[in-house]
């Protein structure tokens, strides 16, 4: 496993995206432990993309405009749904520390999984990313791709937990300021809309 793979993976996982945004929002609204759960869910959402790449389904999506567009707009719709819930639901980013019914662990994990599953660009990324680090002379390419994917997922989880810790560390400084929490809730909602718009206008 070369340093190029580790550096590239670090850049990709640390770059702000839907998973990072969701983990930050969870850390700010619920604290550090829930943010770990959110990071875990986002990491699990990588598994289907990894499996699709290994089984060749990513190549089909890459060549089929209809399949890509369908999957893409499902992702856009879900991002807009998350944005709407974040905007209107004060329980997501509440101004009161114990206000609202906290979401269950399953719900937090499932939201993280869906956010990453419904992102076709992640599958295309795996299709273009993983093969670069698997030698054409590799005797067992599938186990090698699984190994690289596992490292990528581990890095994703660790970095997302770091984002969650950062968000949780400033939570006490902002949770007592209603105007700040309202602004942050609207900012997160707007960011999810922006990510949805960006996905809507991307092509294969």
From TrEMBL:
Endpoints of the signal sequence: none
The cross-references to Pfam families, in alphabetical order and at most eight, read:
LysE
Q: Which membrane topology term applies here?
A: Multi-pass membrane protein
Q: State where the protein is found.
A: Cell membrane
Keywords noted in UniProt: Cell membrane, Membrane, Transmembrane, Transmembrane helix
What is the top-level taxon of the source organism?
Bacteria
**TM segments?**
6-24, 36-60, 66-87, 108-130, 150-171
Q: Which PANTHER family match?
A: ARGININE EXPORTER PROTEIN ARGO, HOMOSERINE_HOMOSERINE LACTONE EFFLUX PROTEIN
**Protein name per Swiss-Prot or TrEMBL:** LysE family translocator
């Amino acid at each position: 496993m070369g340093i190029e793979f580790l550096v590239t993976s670090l850049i990709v996982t640390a770059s702000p995206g839907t998973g990072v945004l969701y983990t930050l929002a969870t850390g700010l609204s619920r604290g550090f432990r829930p943010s770990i759960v959110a990071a875990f869910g986002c990491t699990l959402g990588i598994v289907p993309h990894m499996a699709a790449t290994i089984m060749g389904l990513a190549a089909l999506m890459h060549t089929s405009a209809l399949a890509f567009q369908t999957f893409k707009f499902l992702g856009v719709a879900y991002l807009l749904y998350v944005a709407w819930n974040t905007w209107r639901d004060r329980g997501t980013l509440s101004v009161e520390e114990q206000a609202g019914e906290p979401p269950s662990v399953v719900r937090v994990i499932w939201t993280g999984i869906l956010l990453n599953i419904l992102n076709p660009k992640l599958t295309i990324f795996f299709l273009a990313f993983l093969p670069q680090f698997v030698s054409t002379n590799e005797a067992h390419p599938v186990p090698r791709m699984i190994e690289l994917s596992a490292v990528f997922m581990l890095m994703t989880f660790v970095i997302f937990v770091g984002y969650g810790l950062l968000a949780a560390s400033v939570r006490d400084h902002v949770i007592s300021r209603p105007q700040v929490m309202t602004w942050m809730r609207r900012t997160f909602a707007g960011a999810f809309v922006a990510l949805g718009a960006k996905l809507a206008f991307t092509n294969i």
